[in-house]
UniProtKB/TrEMBL annotation:
<feature type="modified residue" description="N6-(pyridoxal phosphate)lysine">
    <location>
        <position position="211"/>
    </location>
</feature>
<dbReference type="InterPro" id="IPR018319">
    <property type="entry name" value="SelA-like"/>
</dbReference>
<dbReference type="InterPro" id="IPR015424">
    <property type="entry name" value="PyrdxlP-dep_Trfase"/>
</dbReference>
<dbReference type="GO" id="GO:0004125">
    <property type="term" value="F:L-seryl-tRNA(Sec) selenium transferase activity"/>
</dbReference>
<comment type="similarity">
    <text>Belongs to the SelA family.</text>
</comment>
<dbReference type="Pfam" id="PF03841">
    <property type="entry name" value="SelA"/>
</dbReference>
<protein>
    <submittedName>
        <fullName>Selenocysteine synthase</fullName>
    </submittedName>
</protein>
<keyword id="KW-0663">Pyridoxal phosphate</keyword>
<dbReference type="InterPro" id="IPR015421">
    <property type="entry name" value="PyrdxlP-dep_Trfase_major"/>
</dbReference>
C-alpha cells in the first residue's frame, strides 16, 4: 500500500480483467522472487532466451519460443519473421518490404482494438492488411481466394474483442492457409490454454505474460523453431524498440512455471465464492439482474453479469459504471468490465481481487444503487455522449 501514499495515488479495485491501463495483473509471488534475484546480476541474454525457449516449449508443446516486450510486439515481430526469415539484410531493411511477400490475411471480425488497433501492429512491420469476409460472416472459400503469392502470413485472433459467431474457426483457418503454404500466427494473448493452438497446427502462438499468467509485462512467442528464431532476430531491426529486459524474460519463465503448478481448482472455488456473495447481496434490488456468465472464449472462468433496467434501477448501466469508477472522496474506485454497457449490462470479473476486496465491491455497488433510488431524478445520460466525456477527461493529461 505504501507506494500509493508515497506517490499520492489512490488504490483502485480491478473487477474489469487484466488491463494494461490498470497495471495488468497481480504478479505472482514466485515471479517477484525470480525477478528480484536477477535484477542486480548480469546474464548473457541469448542464453537466458535459450532457457525461455525451453520453458515455453515445455508449457506450450511447441518446438521453441522466446520472450518479447508484449503480445502486441509479438504480432509485429512474428509477421516480420514470416517476411524476412533469418536474413539479416532483410531484417535491417524493414519496414521497407519492397521485393518481399508482405500481405497478411485476417478476418474482418478479428480486426480488434486491444488498446491499439491490431491492424497497426501488422502495418508496423511494413506488411499490408488484407481483410477476409464481412464483420459478422466469413467463409473458408473467402480465405482461400484472398491468399495469393504475395501472402506472407495468416493471423487469427482469439479474444472476447472479436465477433464471436459466423467466422472461420481456427481448425479450418489453419487448414486453408496451410494448404496454400501460408504460416498461421494465432494471437491468444489472454487465453488460459497454452497448448491448444500449437496442437491445432499453428506456426506461432502469442500470449501476454502479464495477463492471467501473472508475469511482468512481456509477450510470449511459441512455435516452430525457424520462425521463432527469425522473430527473435528482429531484435537487430525493428524489434529493438520492443525489447524486453532480463527481468521480463526471467519473469515470463517463472510465470509459466508457477502457472503449471498453480492450484487452479482453488482459484476457481475462491472466484465462485465471490460470485455467490455478489448474487446474494444484489438479489431483490429493483431493476437489477445478477447472474454468472461463462467466459466467451472458453477460458475456465465465470464473471458476474449485471443487467440493469434503467427505469427501475433509476440509473443506466454506463452511468453506474462511471459512478463506480469516480467515487466520492474516501471510497475506492471500482473499475468494472463495461465494454458492452450500451446493451444495458456490464460484467464484474472476480479474478484480480485481493482478499476482502470482494466485500468493498458489493458495498460500493449497493451504495450507488441506493443513491440512485433516492435521487430526485433518474441518472440516465445519453450513451452517445459518453465517449466524448471520457476523451475530454484525458485531453489535458498530465494535468
Ligand atoms: C491484450 C491483448 C493484446 C495485447 O497484448 P499486450 O501483451 O498487452 O501487448 C493483443 N491481442 C489481444 C487479443 C489481447 O487481448
Amino acid at each position: 500500500m505504501d507506494f500509493y501514499s508515497r506517490l499520492g495515488l489512490r488504490p483502485v479495485i480491478n473487477v474489469n480483467g487484466t488491463m494494461t491501463s490498470l497495471g495488468a495483473s497481480i504478479v505472482a509471488p514466485p515471479v517477484i522472487e525470480a525477478v528480484a534475484s536477477i535484477l542486480p546480476q548480469f546474464v548473457e541474454i541469448d542464453d537466458l532466451q535459450r532457457k525461455a525457449s525451453a520453458a515455453i516449449a515445455r508449457a506450450c508443446g511447441s518446438e521453441g519460443g522466446y520472450v518479447t516486450a508484449s503480445c502486441s510486439a509479438a504480432i509485429t515481430l512474428g509477421i516480420a519473421a514470416t517476411m524476412t526469415g533469418d536474413d539479416a539484410g532483410l531484417i535491417e531493411r524493414l519496414p521497407d518490404t519492397s521485393g518481399m511477400r508482405n500481405e497478411v490475411v485476417i478476418q474482418t471480425g478479428h480486426l480488434v482494438n486491444y488498446g491499439a488497433p491490431i491492424d497497426q501492429a501488422i502495418r508496423l512491420a511494413g506488411a499490408r492488411v488484407v481483410p477476409v469476409g464481412a464483420a459478422t460472416e466469413a467463409h473458408g472459400y473467402q480465405l482461400a481466394s484472398t491468399i495469393t503469392e504475395r501472402t506472407t502470413a495468416a493471423l487469427y485472433v482469439v479474444s472476447h474483442h472479436t465477433v464471436q459467431f459466423g467466422l472461420i474457426q481456427v481448425e479450418e483457418f489453419i487448414a486453408e492457409a496451410h494448404a496454400r503454404g501460408v504460416p498461421v500466427i494465432v494471437d491468444a494473448a489472454s487465453e488460459y490454454d497454452l497448448t491448444r493452438f500449437i496442437a491445432a497446427g499453428a506456426d506461432l502462438v502469442l500470449y501476454s505474460a502479464h495477463k492471467f499468467l501473472g508475469g511482468l509485462t512481456a509477450g510470449i512467442v511459441a512455435g516452430r523453431k525457424t520462425l521463432v528464431r527469425a522473430a527473435y532476430f528482429q531484435n537487430g531491426g525493428i524489434g529493438r524498440g520492443m525489447k524486453v529486459g532480463k527481468e521480463g524474460i526471467a519473469g515470463a519463465i517463472a510465470a509459466l512455471e508457477q502457472w503449471q503448478h498453480r492450484d487452479h481448482a482453488a482459484a476457481r472455488a475462491r472466484e465462485r465464492g465471490y460470485l455467490d456473495l455478489w448474487i446474494a447481496g444484489l438479489s431483490g434490488r429493483p431493476g437489477i439482474r445478477a447472474e454468472t456468465d461463462a467466459d466467451p472464449t472458453g477460458n475456465p472462468l465465470d464473471r458476474l453479469k449485471l443487467s440493469i433496467d434503467p427505469r427501475n434501477a433509476r440509473i443506466s448501466a454506463w452511468d453506474l459504471a462511471d459512478a463506480l469508477s469516480h467515487p466520492p472522496a474516501g471510497s475506492m474506485p471500482v473499475i468494472v468490465r463495461d465494454h458492452e454497457a450500451e446493451l444495458n449490462f456490464f460484467f464484474i470479473d472476480p479474478c484480480n481481487l485481493h482478499p476482502g476486496q470482494e466485500h468493498v465491491v458489493l458495498e460500493r455497488l449497493l451504495a450507488e444503487l441506493e443513491r440512485a433510488q433516492r435521487a430526485p431524478e433518474p441518472l440516465i445520460t445519453p450513451f452517445y455522449q459518453r465517449d466524448a466525456r471520457r476523451l475530454s477527461g484525458r485531453r489535458n493529461w498530465p494535468d
